[in-house]
Design goal:
The chain is built from 13 helices and 20 strands. Helix 3 packs parallel to helix 12 and helix 5 crosses helix 8. It is globular. It folds into two domains: about 200 residues, Spore Coat Polysaccharide Biosynthesis Protein SpsA, Chain A; about 200 residues, no CATH class. With about 475 residues, the protein is an alpha/beta fold. The chain starts with a helix and ends in a 9-residue tail after the last strand. Helices cover about 35% and strands about 20% of the residues. Keywords: Membrane, Transmembrane, Transmembrane helix. Pfam families: DUF604 (PF04646). InterPro entries: DUF604 (IPR006740).
Length: about 475
């Protein structure tokens, strides 16, 4: 057994080694800490240099912008159609379909007959719906013909397109303004569960179906996550609600199951109206125009053309500046006490007295409700007496006036005559047969405050009035 002295001696011998190890550890920590500090300072220096040179946004922000900025390639369109309706409605779709840049499908009820072949490249590629007779029997649905329309969501999703952020579903008689869809959907987060649509223009239609549904003829948009979730059990949803009497109503039930409500967009239009809708289109809500439906049930929107010609004519303006299409701008000629209301790319109204902007935003009731025997209140918006007939000018042509200005020309049309109107207005503006409207070539980045405008009415002997649209000044009052 070692002596006490030996134990103490051995302990004393070990003490310098432990002290040395501890000192080495501290030294290493200092080296690592200093190195880390140097690297951090170097990183800050490089970061600031990049920021000052303007390249930081390219280095750091580009991936984020790529992830969240929406373009046309991120949208897939599903259009419900049938072989019986396609021949007549094909021109409506081809007026807005962009074959070289858009993705989407026409969902037919059966294979196209020989008369529809070969399938043109100007139309969306077609897909034939699956046979849902078994689902119709099992669900005992009150409206079995609606099942195929709902299942078109699943069929469009299961094609498996890559890089999709949004699915836009509509019908073959829906007129869609695609670039506005891209801009509007770009303000939403596509990673959320989102259901976007529009209500009917008439109270009865919303009451009969639902105030909380998007009307599918006008078009609805489903974010990718929501479409994916719905596609997993769309058959089950249909079976759970056999009493839902329309495709749009069924879709609402299915969306509601995920805790999601409708996000309404004012530019989506079911057009549950009949007759002359020029009053409605001349006072469009302050929102991007996204869709128009039911063109077969209303008068041609340009009186000198048929419905298909009218559609292509409207798209002439859309192709030049989709952001301003139907956007209403109001200004005044105070020397004559005239009010001007411009619906860009569609119409100009001249009223031979001063009307407030609040009144001119209300559509002239030139149209009738979808249900002909409806009684007031009929519409989801305020209207004006149609006897307040203005001087009406419709869009005729468009051209680039310079690098900064676009010129749209509007020509006089005979003002509509309505029965039981005791007053036909003044006639001081009858010498004006044409109106030139100048607008910026730069697109509107968003729909917030409307533009303002200045009016020039030439002296007697000249038949042209000029309107120049511009950005409103700070605190400018439109009155």
């Amino acid at each position: 057994m070692p002596s006490l002295a030996a134990i103490r001696f051995n302990a004393w011998k070990q003490r310098p080694r432990f002290a040395c190890d501890h000192q080495l550890f501290l030294t290493l920590c200092k080296v690592v800490g200093i190195s880390g500090l140097v690297l951090y300072l170097l990183y800050l220096s490089l970061f600031l240099n990049h920021s000052n040179s303007g390249s930081t946004s390219e280095l750091i922000l580009s991936p984020t912008e790529s992830d969240y900025s929406t373009n046309i390639s991120h949208l897939v369109f599903g259009l419900v159609s049938s072989v019986k309706t396609w021949k007549e409605r094909r021109p409506y779709v081809e007026a807005w379909w962009q074959p070289n840049s858009m993705r989407g499908y026409l969902i037919l009820d059966e294979p196209p007959p020989q008369e529809l072949l070969p399938w043109p490249s100007t139309s969306p590629p077609f897909r034939v719906s699956l046979n849902y007779s078994k689902l119709e029997q099992e669900s005992k649905h009150v409206a079995p013909n609606m099942i195929r329309m709902v299942m078109a969501i699943q069929e469009t999703f299961r094609v498996g397109d890559e890089g999709v952020k949004w699915y836009v579903m509509a019908f073959d008689d829906s007129i869609l303004f695609v670039d506005n869809w891209v801009d509007v959907l770009g303000k939403y987060d596509h990673n959320d569960y989102t259901y976007i649509g529009g209500q009917s223009e008439t109270i009865l239609s919303n009451m009969f179906f639902s105030f909380d549904q998007g009307f599918g003829g006008a078009g609805i948009a489903l974010s990718y996550p929501l479409a994916a979730a719905m596609a997993k059990d769309l058959e089950g949803c249909i079976k759970r609600y056999p009493y839902a009497h329309s495709a749009d109503f069924i879709v609402q039930f299915c969306v509601d199951e995920f805790g999601i409500s409708l996000t309404p967009e004012k530019g989506i239009h079911q057009i549950d109206l009949r007759g002359d809708i020029s009053g409605f289109l001349s006072a469009h809500p302050q929102a991007r125009l996204l869709s128009l439906h039911h063109f077969d049930y209303v008068d041609p929107i340009f009186p000198s053309m048929d419905p298909i010609q009218s559609t292509f004519h409207l798209m002439r303006a859309e192709k030049v500046d989709h952001s301003r299409l139907l956007q209403q701008t109001i200004c005044y000629d105070k020397t004559r006490n005239w009010s001007f209301s411009i619906s860009w790319g569609y119409s100009v109204h001249i009223y031979e007295q001063i009307y407030s902007r609040t009144m001119l935003k209300r559509p002239l009731e030139t149209f009738k409700p979808w249900v002909e025997k409806a009684v007031p209140p009929m519409f989801m918006f305020n209207t004006r007496w149609p006897c307040e007939t203005p001087n009406v000018f419709f869009f005729d042509s468009i051209e680039k006036a310079s690098n900064d200005w676009i010129l749209t020309t509007y020509v006089r049309s005979s003002s509509p005559q309505y029965p039981h109107c005791p007053w036909s207005g003044n006639h001081f503006a009858l010498h004006i047969s044409k109106i030139h409207v100048f607008s910026f070539t730069e697109k509107l980045s968003q729909v917030g405050r409307s533009e303002c405008c200045d009016v020039t009415v030439h002296d007697a002997g000249k038949n042209i009035a000029e309107v120049k649209l511009r950005t409103c000044k700070d605190d400018e009052i439109i009155a």
